[in-house]
C-alpha cells in the first residue's frame, strides 16, 4: 500500500487551469481575484464581509490587533489547538488564560469558562477564542450569550471547520454556520484543510468597522481613499483633488496579503467544498461503524451533524504502539495536539501539568486517522484492518 497521510490536498485540472489563467493575467497580487474570493467565501459562510490574508496565523494576529488586545489583557482559549490560537494573544502582549475542554466533544467547555469568569471581577477578561476543533463547531450562540454577559469579544478559530455548523437552540432542526455569533471568525487554506490555496487564510465578520480596520491592517496600515486622508490636498501634490498616486500609512500594519493565484486556487476549491464535506462525513461514518463497541477504543461518538470532519480522532490504549504500527504499514496517522499550556514557552509563563486534566488525559490517548476526500475505500479499509490487527481484533 502506498503512503497514506492523515490529510492531503485534492488538486484537480480545474484548479490548475484557474491558477494558470491568473498567472497569465495582468495581476499576480492585489488584483481582482482577491475580492472575488472574498465575496464568494463570505456568501458561503453567511457573513457580510471577508478579508483574505496570507495564512490562518496572520488572520488571528490581525483579529487581536483589530480588537485592540494590549499589554496585560487576559484572553481565554483552549489548550487543545494549534499554538497559533494562543500565540496571537501574546503577539499583542496579552495574557493567555487556558480553560479546559469538554472530554466528550474536545471543545472549550463553556461551563468551565463560566466558572472562570464568575471567579473574578467583571472586566478581568477581554475576550475568548473558542476553536472548532477537528471540524466540530462550537455552540457560538451559547458563547455569545455568555460573552455579552461579561462584555467579552469572540474570535472563532474555525480553521478546521469551513461549512461546519451547530444546532440552533431555538429550532433544533436548524443549524447555524460559522461566524454568525462571533465578532470575527478565521479560516485557514493550508493544504490539509478543506479548501487549499497552498497557504492562505480568511477573516469574516458582520461588523463594518472591524472590516475596514482589517483591510488597512492587512496592507501596512495604508489607505488609498480620498475621504480618509488626513494630510491636505496641497501636501499630497494636488490642486483641487488628491493625485492618483497618493496614499497614506495611517497605522502600523503588516503585509499579510494573499496573492491572486492563491485566491484563484481557493475560489476553485470553494466551488466543490460541499462535495468534500459529504465525502468526509462518509469516511467518518465508515470509521464509526467499523470501530463501534470495540473495547480498545475509548469514547468514540457517533457521526455528528454539522461536523466538518477535518480530523477523525479516536482515543486508544497504547497510543505509541499503535502510532508506530501504523507507520510501519505506511499509514501516517498524526497526534492533534500536544496541550498548548504544556509547551515549554507557556510552562515558563507558569502553566504546569495538572492545570487542564481533561486536555492532558485526552492527549495521552488521542490519534488522528487518515481522512480526506480522495481517500479510497481500499485505503480506508486498510487503515481500519491495520488498527484492528494491532489490537488482535
Summarize the structure.
37% of the residues lie in helices and 16% in strands. It has 393 residues and is an alpha/beta fold.
Low-confidence parts: none
In total, how many beta strands?
A: 16
Text of the CATH class of the largest domain: Alpha Beta
Give the CATH H-level superfamily of the largest domain. Answer: Type I PLP-dependent aspartate aminotransferase-like (Major domain)
Q: Bin the helical content.
A: 25-40%
**Terminal residue distance:** 21 Å
How does CATH name the architecture of the largest domain? 3-Layer(aba) Sandwich
Q: What is the gyration radius calculated from CA atoms?
A: 22 Å
Query: What fraction of residues sit in β-strands?
Result: 15-25%
Task: Give me the secondary-structure category.
Answer: alpha/beta
Number of domains: 2
Quick one: overall form? globular
Compute the average pLDDT: 95
Count of alpha and pi helical runs: 14
Strands across the major sheet, in which order? 2-10-9-6-5-3-4
3D structure, described in words:
This protein is of the alpha/beta class and 393 residues long. Helix content is 37%, strand content 16%. It folds into two domains: 4-270, Aspartate Aminotransferase, domain 2 (3-Layer(aba) Sandwich); 273-390, Aspartate Aminotransferase, domain 1 (Alpha-Beta Complex), CATH 3.90.1150.10. The chain has helices at residues 13-23, 32-45, 56-66, 84-91, 110-118, 140-149, 208-218, 233-236, 260-270, 273-291, 319-328, 344-347, 357-365, 377-390, and strands spanning 4-5, 49-53, 74-77, 95-98, 125-129, 153-157, 165-168, 171-177, 184-188, 201-205, 222-223, 248-249, 297-298, 312-316, 331-332, 366-369. The longest helix is centred in the last third of the chain and has 19 residues, at 273-291.
Amino acid at each position: 500500500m502506498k503512503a497514506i497521510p492523515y490529510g492531503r490536498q485534492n488538486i484537480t485540472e480545474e484548479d490548475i487551469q484557474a491558477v494558470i489563467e491568473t498567472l497569465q493575467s495582468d495581476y499576480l497580487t492585489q488584483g481582482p481575484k482577491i475580492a472575488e474570493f472574498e465575496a464568494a467565501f463570505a456568501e458561503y459562510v453567511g457573513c457580510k464581509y471577508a478579508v483574505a490574508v496570507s495564512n490562518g496565523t496572520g488572520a488571528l494576529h490581525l483579529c487581536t490587533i483589530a480588537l485592540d488586545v494590549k499589554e496585560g489583557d487576559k484572553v481565554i482559549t483552549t489548550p487543545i489547538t494549534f499554538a497559533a490560537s494562543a500565540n496571537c494573544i501574546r503577539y499583542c502582549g496579552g495574557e493567555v488564560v487556558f480553560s479546559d475542554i469538554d472530554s466528550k466533544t474536545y471543545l472549550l467547555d463553556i461551563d468551565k469558562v463560566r466558572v472562570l469568569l464568575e471567579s473574578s471581577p467583571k472586566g478581568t477578561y477581554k475576550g475568548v477564542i473558542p476553536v472548532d476543533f477537528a471540524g466540530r463547531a462550537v455552540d457560538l450562540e451559547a458563547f455569545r450569550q455568555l460573552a455579552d454577559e461579561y462584555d467579552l469579544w469572540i474570535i472563532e478559530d474555525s480553521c478546521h471547520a469551513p461549512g461546519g455548523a451547530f444546532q440552533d437552540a431555538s429550532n433544533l432542526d436548524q443549524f447555524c454556520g460559522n461566524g454568525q455569533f462571533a465578532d470575527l471568525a478565521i479560516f485557514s487554506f493550508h493544504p490539509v484543510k478543506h479548501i487549499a490555496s497552498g497557504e492562505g487564510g480568511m477573516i469574516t465578520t458582520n461588523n463594518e468597522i472591524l472590516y475596514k480596520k482589517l483591510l488597512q491592517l492587512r496592507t501596512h496600515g495604508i489607505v488609498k481613499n480620498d475621504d480618509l486622508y488626513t494630510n491636505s490636498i496641497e501636501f499630497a501634490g494636488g490642486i483641487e483633488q488628491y493625485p492618483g498616486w497618493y496614499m497614506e500609512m495611517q497605522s502600523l500594519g503588516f503585509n499579510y496579503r494573499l496573492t491572486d493565484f492563491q485566491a484563484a486556487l481557493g475560489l476553485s476549491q470553494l466551488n466543490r467544498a460541499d462535495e468534500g464535506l459529504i465525502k468526509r462525513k462518509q469516511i467518518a461514518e465508515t470509521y464509526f461503524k467499523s470501530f463501534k463497541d470495540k473495547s480498545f477504543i475509548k469514547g468514540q461518538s457517533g457521526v455528528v451533524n454539522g461536523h466538518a470532519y477535518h480530523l477523525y480522532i479516536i482515543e486508544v490504549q497504547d497510543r505509541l504502539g499503535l502510532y508506530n504500527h501504523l507507520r510501519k504499514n505506511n499509514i501516517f496517522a498524526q497526534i492533534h495536539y500536544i496541550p498548548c499550556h504544556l509547551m515549554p514557552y507557556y510552562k515558563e509563563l507558569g502553566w504546569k501539568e495538572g492545570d487542564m486534566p481533561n486536555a492532558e488525559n485526552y492527549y495521552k490517548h488521542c490519534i488522528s486517522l487518515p481522512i480526506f476526500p480522495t481517500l479510497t475505500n481500499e485505503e480506508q479499509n486498510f487503515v481500519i484492518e491495520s488498527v484492528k490487527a494491532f489490537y488482535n481484533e
